[in-house]
Amino acid sequence: MTSAGLAPGDGVLLRAAGLTKTFRGDGVPVPAVRGVDLSLRHGEFAAVTGPSGAGKSTLLHLLGGLERPTGGQIWLGGRRVDGLSEARWAATRRRHIGFVFQFFNLVSNMTVADNIELPALMSGMTRREAARRREELLGRLGLSGKAGLPPARLSGGEQQRVALARALAHRPSLLLADEPTGSLDSAAAASVLGLLRDAHADGQAILLVTHDARVASLAERVISMFDGMIADDAILPAMLEQAHALPSVLKLKG
User: Fold this and answer.
1) Average pLDDT of the residues in 122-131
2) With contact defined as beta carbons under 8 Å apart, do 34 and 210 qualify?
3) Which domain holds residue 220?
4) What is the number of domains present in the chain?
């Protein structure tokens, strides 16, 4: 079950038009995203690939309201959001968006349990519902015994799995994931990719950034970026329903 209130008639959950982002390095403009047009439907699983510096993470940050675009428009659930205030963007993320950061961004002075339950509570879940959801997610990710620990007591791979659980805790309409298996061994990657597969089967829309084509092959659609622009946008076969897909991906770390 995903968040309510994001159901435009055309089935599109997220849309960007003419999206640009230019940073200034030593006074020189550095374009990171250049005229991106993109849409993601409710329940769609898309992967964004490309070389380092292609603009993948910047695009994800723009779509989640963590960076302000230099130009262009963004709509979420049929509502234009690129001009929202920081407070309105924060409220939108609390209700509708889950974000998995490349470098975890867990709250260091909170336990694993509190890191995961906080977004669920802020979205309106009761404490009992949030605790049940946390237990479910940690169990799926092989971390049931870690709930009372601070993030510093976890390995990098464990922290990444906690970050994914936190992002999914409030059952968002949209999950934005930046290299969610980048720091994981094959066993941990199996649990993360399995949870993503289950979330998608439950109707979760996912936009995932990855440098690895084998991870991207789990998606229905692969968007290739180069030099800040979309170079290709291809629909793949429904690999999520094929039993051999997940084991073949996990060979990448073996």
Assistant:
1) 93
2) no
3) 42-56+86-253
4) 1
